[in-house]
Specification:
Blueprint: E1 2-9, E2 31-32, E3 37-45, E4 48-55, H1 62-76, E5 83-87, H2 107-125, E6 129-139, E7 144-146, H3 156-159, E8 175-183, E9 189-196, E10 209-210, H4 213-225, E11 230-235, E12 241-243, H5 250-274, E13 276-278, E14 283-293, H6 299-313, H7 323-343, E15 350-360, E16 363-367, E17 371-372, H8 374-383, E18 388-392, E19 401-402, H9 405-410, H10 413-421, H11 430-446
Parallel strand pairs: 2-10, 4-5, 9-11, 16-18, 17-19
Antiparallel strand pairs: 1-3, 1-6, 3-4, 6-8, 6-13, 7-12, 8-9, 14-15, 15-16
Amino acid sequence: MKAGFFELDITPRVGVGLCGFGPYVNRYSIGVRDVLKTRAAAFEQDGEKAIIVSCDLIGVTPEIAQKVKQLVEKQTGIPAGNIMVHCTHTHSGPNTGAYIGWGNEDDPYIVLLPGKIAKACAGALGRLQETEMLHAAVPCEGVGLNREYDKDAPPLEDVLRDDWRPAKPELTDTKCHVLKFIHKTTGKMSGFMAYFGCHPVVCCRLTRYIHGDYCGVAMNNLERENPGAVGLFLQGAQGDVNSCVVHKPEKEALLALDIIAARFANSVRHGLQTAKPLAVDNIKCADVMQDFSSKEIPLSRIKEMLAEKEAIVYADGVSDENETVRMAVVTVLTLRCIISRIENGEDLLTQTAEIQGIRLGPVEFLSAPLEIMQAIKNEVVAAAKAPVTLVMGITNGSMGYAPDKTAAARGGYAADVVPMIVGRMPFLDIHSELVQAFLEIDSILSNSDCTCSPEK
């Protein structure tokens, strides 16, 4: 196998709105605490090529992802279905258009972004060399907790102790998968990947500095320790996993950011030190546009929901300082859009998403444009044929949460509120349908005769 790595700085200029932690919070950046990067890894085996690019961003729209793929395909000839555009989901970077109201969008940044990501992809291709891939799955504890179980983060003095562990570790990721790539000619590490699932929300709405959250800080530090190596963070199933510190005042949050980043970096270091060689006999790619069913909400009920939110917005004495009012504004805007689409004859009962897989020998990357919950990932990993299965969210777009059956039945923010915020109906059974979609991709990639990118 050949592999190549390349990275570019994609830090926005100071002053842009930061994305995350509530609607219209006027959270404008005042400085750069740590740079944001787009990092690309290119692979080739027997003429088959694939690219995985990871960006220190909250997410990108499907339109941005497709633009990146079009640019790379035009420049290199690599099919769009062999290019995976992934995001770490940092909440201290710019709004790239995936979330209405969650930070003001900066048009110059968004317009220039696809070209920068595509340039990193082309740069990685230009560095292809014969490479050995090594792998380790190492403990990674003391970073996350399941926010569906632990509604509030524990006291700061507790979680910053080295021996802190969540009450239900089995509801979080407890291992970090590390891939290490060594150039055969130089014997040096050219790149590495760290896969882990945890919502990067160490900081809060009061923090105004640009950075890539615990994962971005950790990867930047590891790169400094390993000059010349490019490190990609791959976000796993983080839909119901928060970091152990969240929503603290700015001073405490920034302190905790470094501590949690150090914990994660220690885990990755352990993986780099203990990784064992894996044979890569082929590279395979599969890419489908998958339909997911949505709940059928009558138009009359949607109009009632709109009237309920408009009553909040238009009530006497309302103030935009009130978060409930600002959230109502987001919902008013998206419900009006949904009503218009229904009245124009659009079918909103089917949501289409790009489900993609890339397999490097025994290691399989399965991705979707969703914030996936742990139970879904666990079910896929248990049933997949690939020896090492990495389920990645926030890839090729950002459609909100993929709640598991328990969260969907309970309802609430992830299952019911966010869909309306991002302008779609709640999913009907995303748990079952997403597991099935991933396992179909796994089956395709496990077929020794397959080197295709099928269409649904």
